[in-house]
Amino acid sequence: MRRQREKLSVPEKTKKDEQLFQNMALLTEEYLRKQPKGTVCCYVSLENEADTRQFLSWTLERGLFLAVPRVRGREMEFCKIVSLKALVPGCHGILEPETACAAETPEQGLMLIPGLAFDRAGNRLGYGGGYYDRYLRKNPQFLKAGISYEFQIMDRLPAEEWDVPVDWIVTEVGICKITD
């Protein structure tokens, strides 16, 4: 999957990211219609990942409550940010909230989650750290949306008992609700 993402040309990636942004915004607007006090939790993408930066800016421009992950040891926490300038390189070089940002656990929220691959049952192949699975087992109150390109969607992925599946998958092609 990583190689496939790296093979995307700049124009291809830009087009996919713009379409993906539109779908992320659509799901967020729909979620907030039902949960107006909900928090939007979203990762800050790395260079070859499905891009979230336009979405993060869009969220902040609308004055929405936005929380971004920060890694502390083997655990992940979410911190509210009001500007992308509050992000600094953290674990594995991923941008995360600076130390001054207080960690918060939202009562409810939409969590946008990265992955190398997702399957049609909502299972996720992450990057091997288990941060999201550990966080979501302790905080099950989130509507979980996997963010990826369409070519990262598989028919079936192996899943372990500790893996937490997503409720939705958002790609540049559309939004797919996971059903039992």
UniProtKB/TrEMBL annotation:
Cofactor(s) required for function per UniProt = Mg(2+)
Q: Which domain of life is it from?
A: Bacteria
EC numbers listed for it are 6.3.3.2
GO terms assigned for molecular function: 5-formyltetrahydrofolate cyclo-ligase activity; ATP binding; metal ion binding
Where does this protein hold ATP? 124-132
Q: Which reaction does it catalyse?
A: (6S)-5-formyl-5,6,7,8-tetrahydrofolate + ATP = (6R)-5,10-methenyltetrahydrofolate + ADP + phosphate
Give the protein family.
Belongs to the 5-formyltetrahydrofolate cyclo-ligase family.
Q: Which UniProt keywords apply?
A: ATP-binding, Ligase, Magnesium, Metal-binding, Nucleotide-binding
Q: In which organism is this protein found? A: Cuneatibacter caecimuris
Q: What SUPFAM superfamilies does the record point to?
A: NagB/RpiA/CoA transferase-like (SSF100950)
Could you tell me which InterPro entries the record lists for this protein? Answer: FTHF_cligase, FTHF_cligase-like_sf, NagB/RpiA_transferase-like
Binding residues annotated for substrate, in chain numbering: 44, 49
Q: Which Gene3D superfamilies match?
A: NagB/RpiA/CoA transferase-like (3.40.50.10420)
State the name under which the record lists this protein: 5-formyltetrahydrofolate cyclo-ligase
Q: Name one GO biological process term.
A: tetrahydrofolate interconversion
Record's keyword annotation contains Ligase: yes
